[in-house]
Design brief:
By secondary structure, this protein is mainly alpha-helical. It has one domain. The termini are far apart. Helices cover 79% and strands 0% of the residues. Helix 2 packs antiparallel against helix 3, helix 2 packs parallel to helix 4 and helix 3 packs antiparallel against helix 4.
Length: 96
């Protein structure tokens, strides 16, 4: 009985996570991209990675429009990681 209750609660929790737009993740991705864009130093690799971050953020926004929130969350997190890498490649420190 406890096992069934646990799995029911877990399913409810997962369902509630998947039904909300990833507002926090989108905001963090936007901020990371803005920080990377503001760094003056640049390289072809950093620019390429930053462009990928921007594209991932656009894909996340499109997924939100389609109510595919888990995909949106994954793409927003990907955008944030890419932006942080771009900042690192530009010589900036971004450990957020």
């Amino acid at each position: 009985m406890k096992k069934q209750l646990f799995f029911a609660a877990l399913a409810l929790l997962l369902a509630s996570c998947a039904t909300k737009p990833p507002v926090q993740e989108m905001a963090e991705a936007r901020s990371a991209i803005e920080r990377a864009q503001q760094l003056n130093r640049s390289s072809a690799r950093a620019n390429s990675v930053l462009k990928s971050a921007e594209e991932s953020l656009k894909e996340a926004a499109a997924a939100i429009d389609d109510k595919r929130y888990e995909t949106a969350r994954r793409k927003a997190l990907e955008a944030k990681r890419q932006a942080q890498l771009a900042a690192s490649l530009k010589g900036g420190v971004d450990d957020h």
